[in-house]
Amino acid sequence: MANPNGIGAPVRRREDARFLTGRGTYTDDINRPGQTHAVFVRSPYAHATIRGIDAAEAMQAPGVIAVLTGADMAADKVGSLPCGWQIHSKDGSPMKEPPHFPIARDRARYVGDAVAVVIAETREQAKDAAELVMVDYEELPAAVTSLKALEGGAPQVHDDVGGNLCFDWHLGDAAAVDAAFAQAAHVAKLDLINQRLVPKAMEPRAALGEYDRATGEHTLTTTSQNPHVIRLLMGAFVLGIPEHKLRVVAPDVGGGFGSKIFHYGEEAVVTWAAKKVGRPVKWTAERSESFLTDAHGRDHVSHAELALDKDGNFLALRVATVANMGAYLSTFAPSIPTYLYATLLAGQYKTPAIYAEVKAVFTNTVPVDAYRGAGRPEACYLIERLVEVAAAETGIDKAELRRRNFVPAAAMPYQTPVALQYDTGDFAKNLDIALPLVDYDGFAARKADSVRRGKLRGIGFATYIEACGIAPSNIAGALGARAGLYESAEVRFHPTGSVTVFTGSHSHGQGHETTFAQLVSERFGVPIENVEIVHGDTSKIPFGMGTYGSRSLAVGGSAIVKAMDKVERKAKKIAAHMLEAAEADIEAKDGRFVVAGTDKSLTIGDIALQAYVPHNFPLDELEPGLDEQAFYDPKNFTYPNGCHVCEVEIDPDTGVVQVVNFAAVDDFGRVINPLIVEGQVHGGLVQGIGQALLENCVYDPESGQLLTGSYMDYCMPRADDVPSFTVRYHEDQPCTHNPLGVKGCGEAGTIGASAAVMNAVVHALSEYGITHLDMPATPERVWQAIRHHTPAQAAE
Amino acid sequence: MPCTVSMTVNGKAVSREVEERTLLVTFLRDQIGLTGTHVGCDTSQCGACVVHVDGRSVKSCTMLAVQADGAAVTTIEGLAAADGTLHPMQAAFREHHGLQCGFCTPGMVMSAVDLVTNHPSPTEQEVREGLEGNICRCTGYHNIVKAVMAGAEAMQGGTMKAAAE
């Protein structure tokens, strides 16, 4: 009988019991005896010289313990927040990497840059006192948008970064692309903006620093997706604390979406300050503070051209992108518009020649880094909008044009012209499943019905492929990563047969406590309630690279499998000894260890007990214990792919876009828990729809003030903004190089959705001669576009 | 000037001396230690802090503790039965995978219970509009809506439909 909690079962989540009853433990829920509270004084200017800080009045305020500044950190030799990835420009020079101190020292470079921190007995006292810290600013002109920052004479964000250019990078074969364009029968061109977004996990960032004078150990509890990485970066580069004296805990974390990968200055400040004031120091961001200080996402300005032959075959793609880095380089920032973006520009197509140039620019805005999808939504949006333009211009049906150019399943593994090798994928199959799901053939009739009601209607596609399971350390290293990106796991059987799994992956909504336990239950037949998944604490787990890039199951899960392989090998040895058989004769299946061809067998529980009660083990050959550790480093990226189709109806009188149907067909390889996978898709889709229709992070282009600094200004998708979804997946194309055959599902929805929605919107507006609209397609923007164009019928 | 605030929280009488400016959510989290009620914003937009005050849902970041003086407050910790049996709405969220990171969940569940109390058989559109004041960034609302519809049915004494479509 199949294990009801094994692989493929929609097991209800085990973590839900605590979350549904208010018993989750998030960082801000933790309070320590003697705890103090930190509130930051932040720059109200986008760019200003800090001429002096007078904390005298603040120090006299009730409850104030300390006011600390960048000068205090400098005196303690606190370092700069490091960047984890190094990109080289076309000319071979390394990217510009100006220092990024946890508290600014001489100049504030964005609105919200920390200038001082007040530590007081209560949060309210710290907040009151922060108002009394007198900072003498000299306001400077600000470089706010990426294009303006590149112009000659633009204000310099960093004195030693000429022209604000962090790097000028390229990928692909420019000469081959030029040659192909020279032969083209048609060239489709598009200028497009992938607007800046704010990730906005619902739990604001928080950090709690503690110092134990008896042991000299520091503890940081923080809202992180990867506590070991924070320990490494903060310990080695910022505070100079060795790993054995630094514990980093990421308890329950309320969503991340990339924004909690990075090492933020506040983490270093509370850890450092806790020793300085001799008491625990807690900081919790208010939402407005999160808007100002969490790393933002996207912010690309691109020009793209696609060359086609007379039959609609893609010949070459040429892309030039300007990417906004913000004021400093965040932990992963340089990798996002380069190796997580340009390498994906082949998409699902066999375009033989591709060339991409990317200029990364410093501006007086908060740093930009990975946000769900991280480079891949930008690539998908660019390709799929451009393909749609090409379809409209050549008159080839948009589904057919895509099909004509798909890399065929038979061509796998497929080497793209932009550095990746896809292992598996059947793109035509995804499309074949999607078309009837949305009744593509019935669109004309539905459109006619909309027209009768005075509405516009459009249907749009997006096919996507992403590189996930980040990352093969050898490839990542060759591309500029300063660390390996493997994952660790430890599988510990206890004497009475229950199991604790320690994983370096981190769950902040993904349901690892359920999915990972299913892997163990399936493999050893252990009841799922006897499997505990432990994550998020550097004092318990061997090491971990954490959770991002849809990597937890493909990399972290594979590490668990590798550790289970070792457990099984050891269990076979013990079984052979107990059953007086040859080790080679022991067969393991569903937790039973059988002597082949006999009825002699043991359960994993019997073996676990013997492992810890080894009265007669041959000690030269067999150690006691059943506890194995593994590190898994993937051989390649994984390549989830799919086809998303969106249908919209637009009211031309109001500009309101309604998503009336959305179908997502995805290939995630093998699926462990379909309930969780579908949930990941739903959430991803709404973030993509949010980008397409609602969300837009806006700085005032002159002053650099953040205009969308609250949920009242930054439009988050709400329940009544989005529809229910039709979600399908197939498992015919498992990943070929990891033991589970899994590809990852965390980012897929976000990668495909914005392009599908915008293609549908532009399709609906095409009768007005509208060929492109930048996101978000808000009612105002759609209404304006309609007002500035003439309906085709009227023009005829 | 500190003042004394007394109320019933999840059936227990509590009384604390607090600053007048103390918000109800701060009172619950910091004074009573009930950290299930979350703070997700500072503009009364996100709904992570929703509790019931005298049987009506309230964003507890929008109310001073002194305004709840004498009231009966129910938080997410007080929703399940004394023996630990989940409220039908909590059970429906679990059955239909209506939560991921769990941060918006307490407010979402408390809002949903209030919604169904006032609209016992809501349509999908009514559920979507009724939850407009609660932001979730993880689920895309698809499964939350399913859970609330199922929870509504269960609260009426019906049986829960299977999660699978």
UniProtKB/TrEMBL annotation, chain A:
SUPFAM superfamilies in the record: CO dehydrogenase molybdoprotein N-domain-like, Molybdenum cofactor-binding domain
Record InterPro entries: Ald_Oxase/Xan_DH_a/b (IPR000674), Ald_Oxase/Xan_DH_a/b_sf (IPR036856), Ald_Oxase/xanthine_DH-like (IPR016208), AldOxase/xan_DH_MoCoBD1 (IPR008274), AldOxase/xan_DH_MoCoBD2 (IPR046867), AldOxase/xan_DH_Mopterin-bd_sf (IPR037165)
Swiss-Prot/TrEMBL keywords: Molybdenum, Oxidoreductase
Aldehyde oxidase/xanthine dehydrogenase a/b hammerhead domain span: 21-141
Superkingdom as given in the UniProt entry: Bacteria
Protein name: Xanthine dehydrogenase family protein molybdopterin-binding subunit
Organism: Azospirillum isscasi
Automatic annotation (TrEMBL), chain B:
PROSITE patterns: 2FE2S_FER_2
UniProt keywords, alphabetically: 2Fe-2S, Iron, Iron-sulfur, Metal-binding, Oxidoreductase
InterPro entries, per the entry: 2Fe-2S-bd (IPR002888), 2Fe-2S-bd_dom_sf (IPR036884), 2Fe-2S_ferredoxin-like_sf (IPR036010), 2Fe-2S_ferredoxin-type (IPR001041), Beta-grasp_dom_sf (IPR012675), Diverse_Oxidoreductases (IPR051452)
Presence of the UniProt keyword Oxidoreductase in the record: yes
Domain 2Fe-2S ferredoxin-type as annotated: residue spans: 3-79
Superkingdom to which the source organism belongs: Bacteria
Presence of the UniProt keyword Metal-binding in the record: yes
Pfam families on file: Fer2 (PF00111), Fer2_2 (PF01799)
Name of this chain's protein: (2Fe-2S)-binding protein
Source organism of the structure: Azospirillum isscasi
Lineage, opening ranks: Bacteria, Pseudomonadati, Pseudomonadota, Alphaproteobacteria, Rhodospirillales
